[in-house]
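User: I'm putting together a small comparison set for a docking exercise, and I want a reference complex before I start. The sequence is below, and the ligand is zinc ion. Could you produce the 3D structure with the ligand included, as C-alpha coordinates?
Assistant: Of course. I'll restate your input first, then give the C-alpha coordinates for the complex.
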Amino acid sequence: MPKKHVNGKATQLPSERASKVCPVYGLPFSWRRRWERDWDNVRYCSDRCRAAKGQAGQAH
Ligand SMILES: [Zn+2]
Protein backbone atom coordinates (compact mmCIF):
# COMPACT_ATOMS: atom_id res chain seq x y z
CA MET A 1 0.00 0.00 0.00
CA PRO A 2 1.67 3.22 -1.13
CA LYS A 3 1.84 6.10 1.25
CA LYS A 4 -0.33 9.02 0.37
CA HIS A 5 1.35 12.32 -0.15
CA VAL A 6 -0.23 15.03 1.91
CA ASN A 7 2.26 17.71 1.08
CA GLY A 8 0.26 19.44 -1.56
CA LYS A 9 -2.71 21.65 -1.31
CA ALA A 10 -4.95 20.76 1.55
CA THR A 11 -8.55 21.60 2.00
CA GLN A 12 -9.24 24.73 3.91
CA LEU A 13 -8.32 24.31 7.52
CA PRO A 14 -10.32 25.87 10.32
CA SER A 15 -7.18 27.70 11.39
CA GLU A 16 -7.11 29.41 8.04
CA ARG A 17 -10.51 30.87 8.47
CA ALA A 18 -10.99 34.40 9.56
CA SER A 19 -10.69 35.22 13.19
CA LYS A 20 -12.71 37.79 15.07
CA VAL A 21 -12.13 40.05 18.00
CA CYS A 22 -14.20 39.58 21.09
CA PRO A 23 -15.70 42.94 22.08
CA VAL A 24 -15.65 41.93 25.73
CA TYR A 25 -12.00 41.01 26.07
CA GLY A 26 -10.76 42.84 23.02
CA LEU A 27 -8.84 39.72 22.10
CA PRO A 28 -8.96 37.77 18.87
CA PHE A 29 -10.48 34.35 18.79
CA SER A 30 -10.43 31.88 15.98
CA TRP A 31 -13.01 29.80 14.26
CA ARG A 32 -14.29 26.78 16.09
CA ARG A 33 -16.08 23.73 14.92
CA ARG A 34 -19.17 24.60 16.90
CA TRP A 35 -19.54 27.78 14.89
CA GLU A 36 -19.30 26.04 11.58
CA ARG A 37 -22.79 26.99 10.53
CA ASP A 38 -23.09 30.18 12.48
CA TRP A 39 -19.76 31.89 12.06
CA ASP A 40 -21.21 34.95 10.40
CA ASN A 41 -23.35 35.59 13.44
CA VAL A 42 -20.70 34.92 16.03
CA ARG A 43 -19.58 38.03 17.84
CA TYR A 44 -18.23 36.75 21.13
CA CYS A 45 -15.64 34.11 21.90
CA SER A 46 -17.92 32.33 24.34
CA ASP A 47 -21.36 32.26 25.83
CA ARG A 48 -19.88 33.78 28.96
CA CYS A 49 -18.75 36.84 27.06
CA ARG A 50 -22.10 37.16 25.38
CA ALA A 51 -23.80 37.06 28.75
CA ALA A 52 -21.33 39.54 30.24
CA LYS A 53 -21.90 41.90 27.38
CA GLY A 54 -25.64 41.57 27.82
CA GLN A 55 -25.41 42.45 31.49
CA ALA A 56 -23.16 45.42 30.95
CA GLY A 57 -25.03 46.93 28.07
CA GLN A 58 -28.53 47.30 26.86
CA ALA A 59 -30.98 44.47 27.03
CA HIS A 60 -31.72 42.83 23.77
ZN1 LIG B 1 -14.83 36.85 24.74
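The chain has a mean pLDDT of 80. Residues 22, 24-25, 44-46, 49 surround zinc ion (CB under 6 Å).
User: Thanks, that's exactly what I needed.
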